[in-house]
């Protein structure tokens, strides 16, 4: 949807940060007899766990990354610089007595020994289990549920929302509780899966944790991004959450650099240099998450925009609100802010989501984006408040589609808001609801109310605000959406915090209301 910097050719960027088509193909599906030298005996090959993602009615993407030394500072996880065949199996039962699919992928040093096999041919709407095998070592077992077939009836679908995982700010108690939810069909990671800041004594609030000096600098290189993903993914609760259910993921800014926009650095790094940083950051995102091959970057371009259809129950559209947006206005008085052609999504993505909303036959139309949509304050120019014309266009389509739900993160607060047309300069009437999940750890323990509370709750359409850490659990049925805002009272001291229900709302189909339960 965008083009690389004219000062740095696509060919050079691919040479600096990409991988060949052959490498990619073998990382997804390699011949069973794929040639590779025997791997010296190493324990703990699956030190970063397993994951599945992007479920379909007939399958899903599987993921693992071989890393017996996850925090090796060269970014290769303690693996030799050669390829390793990785066998995978999918079964209908956790004991693997009913294996329904198997194959081989090649873990290669070019992709940090990650594999992304794409499983096909499975039964729809069915629970499956998977594992990987390398020599005598077998990975932990993961679970996913295939989607119901397009247009078919579905009684319910449950989604967990996670955002803003600053590992150094606290323990992942939120992940521990979400992974233990009895019903979980999909986890949605809403951005800031990692943070790029250097970890120092000043910001290492996760008590009991230590890091080496290699973590103390802001990350810029491929090796550093790989290392930060490994540090984040070394958390056992995050690994358990990934093993519990399939995931989808979008990014916001910290996967690259705080408040970057499109090809522009927020700190004045020249564009030709920043293009390389974007390229390696996007590549590390692909290497470390269970995303489909469409997300593999070509230089500084990547496509994480994706859609899932949960039978006739819900149409889910994953948005990229970072890569294609216009530059934010300098401030609330900037005349550029009101320009009608300004965009948050870029023209191509805006057409795509408009088409999905206009052609949807689903009961619920769900969008997932990186930044808050609801009007809050003119000075919040990094959110949709800095793009009012683009917001009006999107709200118009959401209102037309009906039963629209926007899911966001970013702000480290739980927020529930009713989206009213008049609040954004449109004709009066409901346009949908917005459900914002708080951070998993970013900003430490937090508090129910804070200095930002008045700015949000002054709007009558903001129905809930809580500044503590936690997650959001959603249950979609044909009749209603139930949104449960869970919090944990602390994250800095340890991972034992109990969960508390901050608020629960129901949204009856056709109402665009938040009714507190």
Describe the structure.
- By secondary structure, this protein is of the alpha+beta class.
- About 20% of the residues lie in helices and about 25% in strands.
- The chain is built from 9 helices and 23 strands.
- Strands 10, 11, 12, 13, 14, 15, 16, 17, 18, 19, 20, 21, 22 and 23 form a 14-stranded mixed sheet that branches.
- Helix 3 links the parallel strand 10 and strand 11 (about 185-190).
- It is globular, with a radius of gyration of 22 Å.
- Residues about 1-15 have low confidence and may be disordered.
Describe the global form: globular
Proportion of residues in β-strands: 25-35%
**Strand pairing plus helix content: what structural class?**
alpha+beta
What share of the residues lie within helices?
Answer: 10-25%
Q: Flag low-confidence runs.
A: 1-17
| Rg | 22 Å
Record field, number of beta strands? 23
| First-to-last CA distance | 42 Å
Provide the residue-averaged pLDDT.
93
Query: What's the helix count?
Result: 9
Summarize the main sheet.
Answer: 14 strands, mixed
Which oligomerization state do the chains in this entry correspond to? single chain
């Amino acid at each position: 949807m965008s083009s690389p910097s004219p000062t740095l050719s696509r060919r050079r960027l691919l040479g600096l940060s990409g991988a060949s088509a052959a490498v990619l193909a073998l990382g997804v599906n390699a011949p069973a007899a794929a040639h590779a030298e025997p791997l010296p005996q190493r324990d703990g090959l699956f030190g970063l766990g397993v994951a599945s993602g992007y479920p379909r009615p007939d399958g899903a993407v599987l993921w693992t990354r071989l890393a017996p030394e996850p925090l090796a500072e060269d970014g290769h996880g303690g693996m030799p610089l050669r390829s390793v065949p990785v066998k995978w199996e999918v079964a209908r039962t956790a004991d693997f007595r009913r294996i329904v699919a198997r194959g081989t992928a090649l873990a290669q040093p070019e992709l940090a020994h990650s594999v992304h096999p794409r499983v096909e041919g499975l039964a729809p709407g069915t629970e499956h289990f998977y594992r990987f095998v390398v020599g005598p070592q077998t990975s932990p077992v993961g679970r996913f549920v295939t989607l119901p077939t397009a247009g078919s009836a579905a009684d319910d679908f449950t989604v967990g929302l996670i955002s803003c995982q600053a590992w150094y700010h606290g323990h992942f108690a939120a992940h521990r509780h979400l992974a233990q939810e009895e019903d979980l069909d999909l986890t949605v990671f809403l951005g800031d899966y990692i943070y790029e800041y250097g970890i120092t004594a000043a910001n290492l609030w996760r008590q009991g944790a230590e890091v080496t000096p290699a973590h103390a600098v802001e990350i810029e290189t491929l090796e550093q991004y790989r290392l930060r993903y490994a540090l984040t993914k070394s958390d056992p609760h995050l690994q358990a959450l990934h093993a519990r259910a399939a995931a989808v993921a979008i990014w916001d800014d910290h996967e690259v650099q705080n408040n970057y926009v499109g090809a522009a650095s927020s700190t004045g790094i020249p564009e030709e240099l920043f293009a390389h940083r974007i390229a390696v950051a996007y590549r590390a995102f692909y290497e470390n998450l269970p995303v489909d091959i469409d997300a593999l970057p070509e230089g500084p371009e990547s496509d994480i925009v994706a859609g899932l259809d949960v039978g006739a129950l819900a149409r889910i559209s994953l948005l990229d609100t970072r890569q294609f947006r216009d530059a934010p206005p300098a401030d609330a008085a900037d005349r550029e802010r009101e320009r009608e052609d300004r965009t948050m999504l870029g023209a191509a993505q805006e057409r795509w989501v408009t088409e999905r909303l206009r052609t949807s036959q689903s009961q619920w139309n769900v969008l997932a984006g990186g930044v808050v949509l609801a009007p809050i304050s003119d000075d919040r120019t990094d959110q949709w408040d800095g793009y009012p014309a683009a917001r009006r266009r999107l709200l118009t389509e959401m209102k037309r589609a009906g039963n629209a739900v926007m899911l966001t993160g970013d702000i480290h607060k739980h927020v529930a808001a009713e989206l009213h047309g008049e609040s954004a300069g449109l004709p009066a009437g409901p346009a949908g609801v917005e459900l914002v999940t708080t951070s998993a750890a970013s900003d430490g323990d937090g508090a129910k109310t804070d200095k930002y509370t008045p700015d949000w709750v002054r709007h009558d359409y903001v129905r809930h605000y809580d500044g503590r850490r936690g997650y959001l659990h959603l249950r979609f049925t044909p009749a209603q959406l139930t949104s449960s805002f869970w919090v944990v009272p602390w994250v800095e001291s340890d991972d034992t915090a109990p969960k508390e229900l901050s608020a629960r709302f129901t949204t009856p189909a056709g109402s665009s209301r938040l009714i507190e339960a």
